[in-house]
Backbone:
């Protein structure tokens, strides 16, 4: 069904902290690892050990340099995967009903046995969150690890998306963004979480926490007065030596 | 956007085919018997050939029929239904014209409307995409319809209407280029909104996520040089509009008419190639397209 539900019961999604992400790409690897051997078709690679490798990934980490008006530029690592949009344009364009948004938790999924691989949904997504698998000919995207989060065979702490479980710097958080009391919602409120490309009108569920303001050098320099050179012009014996040596 | 051969063939040929069907359905030209047979053969060949070409774009062709299910929300699905409805209706109308020398006119009118509706639905597949600002304007369906009507008139040998509609389509092509060139900037989507880092300062793509390329870059981060595009615009416009109109203004000759048709089709292919190649997807921003400080990675 490619009509969007009026409302979903929950809005499961991710909160990504751009302040703490260290750009290690561990989430990229754990995502590919989990999703290539679980839900749906594997995530294939083409020419993986050759001169022109490429492959299907559901999560990719970009790095950007931001230049403020004054001061040093900042490097920001930027993980990007499906944002499970409320007004998901990828769903409504799908001609087959393969793409859908779940009413119970808002997760956007592809039913791969219905997908004809037309690629229109990838065109409709502004974020580049969908990739056509070159081997399978069907569309792949983040499932929010739907096969982990409800999986009773896993230990409780593992019932989160693989990327969240893996992140060594705690930059990824998972939860219900519809519930104002959830940890993720409070984090978004406290840190001023934002939507990507709000002007595209997709109403993403995933939120990004902007980097906190950097400390400024002139504020930390409290010891500077004590470190000033004691004597600019040496006096006494040292002064005499200095002047005599200069004259030579 | 990557100018895929299957999509260029699909949109141009089916546009032409349904254009011819629309004129035939209106009874201009009111052909019967063998002449009608040849006309309908060409029209159905183009429309059907275009649709077959479109299936080559699919990753899973064997499931193509599933595309009929979501007509309530998807323009691609609507296009599939309208194409089948138009071809079925015009098939019946053709039956009357070819074998019974009859024009069951209400059927023809319905067929003409369905044929143009199909072209409209095709254009909406592109025009609906907010992510591709150059396509996302009302002028896109108008342009596709005008080209289909002009090409249809040319192929059905309706000289007067062909000249008129070629000029209209030519003007709309120029308008689509001029307005299209400004659309990306007007969309308001920038690297700053894409990353949300705008409040800190100007954003520059520092490192792409992978050392190699990927599906997104191959499919959507396609760019052509400005000089290149200008040359192709001149060529495409000359072949698609100017030359055919000049030829049609000369005294009629079958060989010349054939040249006009070939020139129009060649020009149509070039401009349709540009329609895809010049269209930029906003996802390119994540890969450094439109970077103000350096050359784009793509
Ligand atoms: S991020 Fe892209 S793929 Fe995911 S729901 Fe939004 S539009 Fe669809
Ligand atoms: S590629 Fe598959 S999921 Fe995407 S729009 Fe086409 S049929 Fe639907």
Residues:
């Amino acid at each position: 069904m490619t009509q969007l539900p009026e409302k979903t019961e929950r809005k499961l999604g991710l909160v990504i902290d751009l302040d703490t992400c260290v750009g290690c790409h561990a989430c990229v690897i754990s995502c590919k690892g989990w999703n290539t051997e679980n839900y749906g078709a594997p995530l294939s690679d083409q020419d993986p050990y050759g001169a022109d490798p490429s492959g299907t990934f559901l999560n990719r980490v970009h790095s950007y340099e931001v230049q403020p008006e004054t001061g040093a530029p900042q490097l920001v690592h930027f993980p990007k995967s499906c944002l499970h949009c409320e007004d998901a344009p990828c769903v409504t364009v799908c001609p087959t009903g393969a793409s859908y948004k779940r009413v119970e938790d808002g997760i956007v999924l592809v039913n791969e046995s219905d997908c004809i691989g037309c690629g229109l949904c990838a065109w409709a997504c502004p974020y580049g969150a969908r990739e056509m698998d070159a081997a399978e000919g069907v569309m792949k995207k983040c499932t929010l690890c739907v096969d982990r989060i409800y999986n009773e065979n896993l230990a409780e702490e593992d019932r989160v998306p693989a990327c969240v479980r893996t992140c060594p710097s705690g930059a990824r958080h998972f939860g219900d963004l519809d519930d104002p009391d959830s940890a993720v919602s409070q984090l978004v409120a406290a840190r001023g979480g934002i939507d990507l490309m709000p002007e595209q009108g997709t109403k993403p569920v995933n939120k990004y926490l902007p980097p906190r303001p950097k400390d400024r050098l002139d504020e930390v320099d409290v010891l500077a007065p004590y470190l000033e050179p004691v004597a600019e012009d040496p006096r006494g014996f040292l002064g005499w030596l200095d002047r005599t040596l200069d004259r030579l | 956007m990557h100018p895929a051969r299957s999509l260029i063939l699909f949109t141009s040929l089916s546009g032409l085919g349904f254009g011819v069907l629309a004129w035939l359905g209106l009874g201009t030209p009111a052909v019967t018997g063998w002449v009608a047979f040849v006309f309908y053969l060409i029209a159905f060949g183009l429309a059907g050939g275009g649709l077959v070409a479109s299936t080559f774009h699919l990753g899973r062709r064997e499931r193509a029929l599933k595309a009929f299910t979501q007509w309530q929300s998807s323009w691609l699905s609507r296009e599939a239904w309208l194409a089948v409805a138009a071809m079925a209706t015009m098939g019946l109308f053709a039956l009357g014209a070819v074998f019974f020398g009859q024009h069951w006119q209400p059927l023809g009118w319905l067929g003409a409307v369905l044929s143009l509706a199909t072209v409209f639905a095709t254009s909406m597949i592109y025009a609906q995409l907010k992510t591709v600002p150059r396509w996302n304007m009302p002028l896109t369906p108008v342009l596709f319809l005008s080209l289909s009507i002009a090409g249809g008139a040319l192929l059905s040998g309706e000289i007067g209407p062909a000249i008129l509609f070629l000029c209209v389509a030519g003007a709309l092509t120029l308008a689509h280029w001029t307005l299209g060139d400004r659309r990306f900037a007007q969309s308001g989507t920038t690297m700053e909104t894409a990353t949300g880092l705008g409040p800190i300062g100007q954003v520059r793509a520092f490192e792409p996520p992978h050392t190699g390329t990927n599906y997104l870059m191959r499919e959507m981060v396609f760019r052509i040089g400005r000089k290149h595009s200008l040359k192709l615009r001149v060529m495409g416009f000359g072949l698609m509009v100017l030359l055919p109109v000049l030829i049609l203004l000369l005294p009629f000759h079958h060989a010349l008419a054939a040249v006009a048709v070939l020139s129009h089709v060649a020009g149509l292919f070039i401009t349709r190639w540009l329609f895809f190649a010049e269209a930029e997807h906003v996802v390119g921003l994540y890969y450094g397209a439109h970077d103000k400080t350096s050359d784009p990675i793509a």
Notes: DSSP finds ten helices and one strand in chain B. The pocket of iron/sulfur cluster (ligand 1) is lined by residues A 82-85, 88-90, 108, 125, 127, 129-130, 141, 202 (CB under 6 Å).
